Amino acid sequence: MPGNDEKSSLPCFGLDGKTVVVTGAGRGIGRTIALDAHRSGARIAAGSRTMEELDSLSRTISDEGGVCTTHRLDVTDNQSIESFVEAVAEFHGSINVLINNAGFNSQKSILDYDETLYDKIVDTNLKSVFFCSQIVARRMIEQGGGGSIVNLSSQAGVIGAPMRGPYSAAKGGVVNLTRTMAVEWAAHGIRVNAVAPTVTRSPMAEQAMRENPAFADAVKANNLLRGDLAEPSEISAPVIFLASEAASMITGHTLVVDGGWTIH
């Protein structure tokens, strides 16, 4: 037994030597995931439509002695995804982990959505997960050695979510798509899991709470552990866990991180 002054470690929780791809990495949860993956030992490939935000992320990681390549990426455009994955593989040599984080929402009654907004929400939250995962999984299978994919769903994908109809449908699709990918790719050693966060602190979430008092009241009443928004770091940590070898026997699972919202 180690003495009281000895430290023990569990290296399986780290991402040492892994190349981790994060979509929507410029801000919010995606930025935090990229930073935490770097601090867990990974090399980062960050994609976003906003290069200025990625430049800031890259500088932070570089200043800490890490490696972060940045790439313009539109996750609703398959050609953009193909070019992104090709550039990442060319620079890093392999892709070990994919975090499908990019997302978009706009709150309205189902009666008020038009087709254009519906398509934007579904394409950004569901179509993107399908094709980013497909294109990266092909690369993982070709290079061998398996891999890990973590999809960002939402608590809105596992319960009814008023004022978020298309978003709820898309995130529910992510949950079942995660299961199907896990079954299809298990033979290749590729694990596929999802994290379903509650409403998490970001400029968009804080604005929604200011503009919609009923929504703000729901957040405060239903996050039993906090009575407020979750913090990005509280979502990132479960993502890093599922990406790591500590979760080597977990696939097809959706980990709900919601402070108790969906249990009552």
From TrEMBL:
Name of a matching Pfam family: adh_short_C2
GO molecular function terms listed in the Swiss-Prot or TrEMBL record: gluconate 5-dehydrogenase activity
Domain of life: Bacteria
Gene3D superfamilies, per the entry: NAD(P)-binding Rossmann-like Domain
Enzyme class at the top of the EC tree: oxidoreductase
PANTHER family membership: SHORT-CHAIN DEHYDROGENASES/REDUCTASES FAMILY MEMBER
Family, similarity comment: Belongs to the short-chain dehydrogenases/reductases (SDR) family.
Protein name per the record: Gluconate 5-dehydrogenase
Organism: Neorhodopirellula pilleata
Gene: gno_2
